[in-house]
Amino acid sequence: MSEAEWESLCDGCGRCCLHKLRDDDTGDLEFTNVACRMLNLESCTCRDYANRSREVPDCIALTPSALSEIDWLPPSCAYRLVAERRDLPDWHPLITGNASSTCNAGASVAGRAISETDAGPLEHHIVAWPARWPKNRPS
User: How far, CA to CA in Å, does 11 sit from each of 31, 80, 112, 115, 118?
Assistant: First the structure.
C-alpha cells in the first residue's frame, strides 16, 4: 500500500487525537473528550499535520508496523479494521465518496470534544463513547 493509500484510510473522526488515561497499576484505559490542541474541533483535522510531531512530540504516527503496539484505536478505525482484516463501515468516506459521512454517522468528535487548552484536569473529562462503535445519528 502506498503512503497516499495508507493515509486515505483515515476517516477523519479525530478520536485518535483524544487524550487517554492509562492506570499504571492495572493497565486499564479510559478515554476523555479532550482533544490535542492541534486538532481543529470543527473539521476534525490536524492544524499542521505535516509538522505535528514538532508541536506535539508524543504524537503517534499510525504506521502499519506501529499498529501492533497500539491498543487504543476506536473499534471503527479503518487502520484497526484493516489490521484485523475486517471491512470498512459503510459510512467510511472511501465507500461513500463523501468526507462528511463520518460526521453524519456519529463517528466524529465534532461537537463532542474540547481542546486540551480549555480542559483542566483530564480526570474530569472521562467518557465512554470514543471506545464504542458509533451509532448513526438521525438525518
Answer: 19, 12, 17, 20, 25
